[in-house]
Amino acid sequence: MVNLSINLNNAMTKTTELKGSSFTLSALHLIDGDIKKAIDHLKEKIELAPNFFASAPVVIDISNAGKDINFEQLKVAIVDAGMIPVGISGCKEQALQNQAKSAGFAIMNAARTVKEKTAAESTEAEPSSQPVQGRESALIIRTPVRSGQQIYAKNRDLIILNHVSAGAEIIADGCIHIYGTLRGRALAGANGDLEATIFCQNLQSELISVAGNYWLSDNIQDEFWGKGVVISITDNTLSIEHLAL
């Protein structure tokens, strides 16, 4: 008779790990408690860039929405609009937090992204322009990026030596350079890098984003449409300027 007894403690293998991570999420800011008005606005944005927003996770910021919020109604309305509500931010009162939790929302605290500088710190040398440590060499794409295509330059810059069609999506953890017309979507700093920048020779984009801060086409001023531009983060918001050649 062969002894088939097994020490289960020794036989078990590690199948999961719980680690901290960070993700870039869209945030729906409720200006007041009018859920219908907020959802109508959300639907308009989704219609402008359905491939970007459809089934995307969204956090709802209620810091300015008051105390009379129907969280169940809010959740159902966002799902019906086509996005996935995952959490509530700007919720400091325990009673509101309990209501949000009962409706299935996580309570999320916004990370502090800007450090206040002292006068001494502000006079220090400018940040280094050296590549981020560990970042790989740029991914270079020479062919047109066609509708429905998605290109992701993980942990590096992305250089497009051609056009990006409407319905196409280009993403980079670093900077994005487009030496052609951008009609699709461009998302730089996808891992949260606030130093990332988009350089584009002809901006006609459906959506541009840097480190989670985004503009749709209707947010782009007429003076920059169809022009060479540089898009970056200034004071924690998107800024745009003409590309000097």
UniProtKB/TrEMBL annotation:
<protein>
    <recommendedName>
        <fullName>Probable septum site-determining protein MinC</fullName>
    </recommendedName>
</protein>
<dbReference type="InterPro" id="IPR016098">
    <property type="entry name" value="CAP/MinC_C"/>
</dbReference>
<dbReference type="GO" id="GO:0000902">
    <property type="term" value="P:cell morphogenesis"/>
</dbReference>
<dbReference type="Pfam" id="PF05209">
    <property type="entry name" value="MinC_N"/>
</dbReference>
<keyword id="KW-0131">Cell cycle</keyword>
<dbReference type="GO" id="GO:0051302">
    <property type="term" value="P:regulation of cell division"/>
</dbReference>
<dbReference type="InterPro" id="IPR036145">
    <property type="entry name" value="MinC_C_sf"/>
</dbReference>
<feature type="domain" description="Septum formation inhibitor MinC C-terminal">
    <location>
        <begin position="140"/>
        <end position="241"/>
    </location>
</feature>
<dbReference type="GO" id="GO:0000917">
    <property type="term" value="P:division septum assembly"/>
</dbReference>
<dbReference type="Pfam" id="PF03775">
    <property type="entry name" value="MinC_C"/>
</dbReference>
<dbReference type="InterPro" id="IPR007874">
    <property type="entry name" value="MinC_N"/>
</dbReference>
<dbReference type="InterPro" id="IPR013033">
    <property type="entry name" value="MinC"/>
</dbReference>
<comment type="function">
    <text>Cell division inhibitor that blocks the formation of polar Z ring septums. Rapidly oscillates between the poles of the cell to destabilize FtsZ filaments that have formed before they mature into polar Z rings. Prevents FtsZ polymerization.</text>
</comment>
<keyword id="KW-0132">Cell division</keyword>
<dbReference type="InterPro" id="IPR005526">
    <property type="entry name" value="Septum_form_inhib_MinC_C"/>
</dbReference>
<feature type="domain" description="Septum formation inhibitor MinC N-terminal">
    <location>
        <begin position="17"/>
        <end position="85"/>
    </location>
</feature>
<comment type="similarity">
    <text>Belongs to the MinC family.</text>
</comment>
<keyword id="KW-0717">Septation</keyword>
<comment type="subunit">
    <text>Interacts with MinD and FtsZ.</text>
</comment>
<dbReference type="GO" id="GO:1901891">
    <property type="term" value="P:regulation of cell septum assembly"/>
</dbReference>
